[in-house]
Amino acid sequence: MSDATRDIEALIELMARLPGLGPRSARRAVLHLIKKRGPVMAPLAQAMANVAATARECASCGNIGTADICDICRDERRATGEICVVEDVADLWAMERGQSFRGRYHVLGGTLSALDAIGPEELRIPKLLARVRDDGVSEVILALNATVDGQTTAHYIAELLEGSGVAVTSLAQGVPIGGELDYLDDGTIQAALRARKKI
């Protein structure tokens, strides 16, 4: 195997480690990049090198940015007293796409999981409690995924904050806009029934 072939195989193996890409998809992606070396591969490699050199985790909320404190945490207009707790950065970015929440965030970095030996100390739960205590927080919004681990984590945090004087809320769950009942799973229908409201 030549050096060039070894480099290509190494790139395919690295790409195959990305979420959603298996060996076949990685091979197709690498072949596409090689064919589009000038317009796609070179700028992609440069952008990846830039991000590798500058990306860092926000010391306050856990978001990813290029400074020690992210733009959201630095924005004084967002000092509303509301903190939205999410599982990971992808969830934070999803919330930001909706442009509905104008407070600040807290990224846990996962959820509690006895099977995976992930406890509160492995997550950013102690940091959340410190922020609630020190930053004049009036409401904690638990925007965790509707999985068993997500809901277990939400209940655990709610119990920790009980008696703190801080309002603890969660996102409504149920039928999405445009959703048809026939296509929904049983858990979603049950959550929608529990969260029903008067019209």
Q: What value does the average pLDDT take?
A: 91
Order of helices and strands: HHHEEHEHEHEHEH
What class would the helix/strand composition place it in?
alpha/beta
Q: Helical amount among residues, as a percent range?
A: 40-55%
Could you say which overall geometry the principal axes of the C-alpha atoms support? globular
Write down the Rg. 21 Å
Number of helices: 8
The end-to-end span amounts to 69 Å
Query: Which regions have little confidence, pLDDT < 50, spanning 5+ residues?
Result: none
CATH class of the largest domain: Alpha Beta
By CATH, the architecture of the largest domain is named 3-Layer(aba) Sandwich
Give the neighbour order of strands across the main sheet.
Answer: 4-3-5-6
How many domains make up the 3D coordinates?
2
The count of DSSP E runs of length 2 or more, i.e. the number of strands, is 6
Largest sheet: 4 strands, parallel
What can you see in these coordinates?
The protein has 199 residues and is of the alpha/beta class. It has helices at 3-16, 23-35, 37-54, 71-74, 89-98, 125-134, 148-161, 186-194; strands at residues 56-57, 64-65, 82-86, 104-107, 139-142, 167-170. The protein has a four-stranded parallel beta sheet with strand order 4-3-5-6. Strands 1-2 form a two-stranded antiparallel ribbon. Helix 5 (89-98) links the parallel strand 3 (82-86) and strand 4 (104-107). The model has no long low-confidence stretch (mean pLDDT 91).
